[in-house]
Amino acid sequence: MIRAIFFSIFDVHEGPKVLHQVPADSIAPSTGSSQIPLFHFPSVSSFIIPRPEYCSKLITFCTPVHRVLCHPVCLHSSTYPRNAYTFSIALVLDSSTPFASYATVTLKLASLLQTLEEQSRFLSRDASAPNTGKIYALCEILLEDLNNYCESMIPIDDSNTLNIKLFPTYPPPPPLYPHHVPLSTVRLESLTDPNWDLTMLRVLPHIDGINSVKQISLLADADYKLVRKAIEHLLYYGCLLLLDIFSFSASYASTAELASFVEDTDMQEECAAYVALPSIQGNSKASQSDPVSGFQLVELYLKLRQGQTVKTFYIENVEVLDRIDIRRFITFGVIKGFLYRVHRYAIATSQTSRRKREHKIKSRQKANISTAVESQADETEAEPHLLELEKFLDGTHCFDEICTELMISERELMNRLKASGDVQIICR
Questions:
Q1: Please, are residues 364 and 375 in contact by the beta-carbon 8 Å criterion?
Q2: CB within 8 A of 395, min separation 6: which ones?
Q3: What is the pTM (predicted TM-score) of this model?
Q4: Which residues are paired to 154 by β-bridges?
């Protein structure tokens, strides 16, 4: 929230001076005023109206309670006293307020006032008394509009209008990898516009909580880097969540947050509605069976544990899980934070498989030349696949990432790992 806006200049007789301030007496109280200013202006005036070499730069500094943003401007001309006119428009915020969006406002205000001054001497010819006139009205309207509506449109004259909007600042999105699965949290189709980026329009139909980022780029027939940038944009504005690739060979376990789900009946009802299979006309089990109760959902989540695949979990609880969407069941727990994915990682525990294979070829060459030639041919065919896999065997790449990067199934990955020699698989 903006606490004050003030306009100051360098007076050739008095030095740095506050001409207009909103609210009144918030920065430089008038004589006889009992109001306490937000900070002591004379002690910071060298930052508000600095030397010429520090002008035309955004300056921000903090007092014990507030943060001040200003952009001093120094214009040189023989028409000014001392051949220069220095002014500064400043915003005062609470010290804890994120100021990135307000910095943009400050820069735009300074740029507009500089343009007006260069065009028509809008600032230097203003003979109105302090806290009156057009500049004061500009500050007053701006303070009220930005605090109440986060935007403002102020006509300055017949040819100039100030348009400013405060855009919210969000924390940077989490890192995005090819194996991540984006899930929309809003109805993206209701936000689309024909003027949107073409890559974005091609990507949106494939964001369904099932396709990974790499799969989306293939389905959209678009460059992966552009697809990633489009998804990062949606992720930044909170339109997406990131999930793992769902598969029946995956393993999930509950966290301590599951206790909140046990106690929250509203969340249980939300879960039951989310995971229920859609009603189908005819003799469908989904339409004939009773909905899953909250107690049954809690019981199912408690049965998930490390070392147990989703396939095994489904087979053991098929009577209940036959009535719900198992993918949505897992997804709901991950979104709410009381389920986590147990990833698998591969670590090469001995010498590299390439050296082992070279050693085998040399030993065969000594025993039988013809056998060695056949082995060399087989090795040449298999070598690129195994060499491509070796860079992922350092324990930092999960199976989802490896399968996505190499475009292979998990079964094919396991076969290649077995052919690579001594490889240890860990779960965490």
A1: yes
A2: 345, 346, 347, 426
A3: 0.71
A4: 162
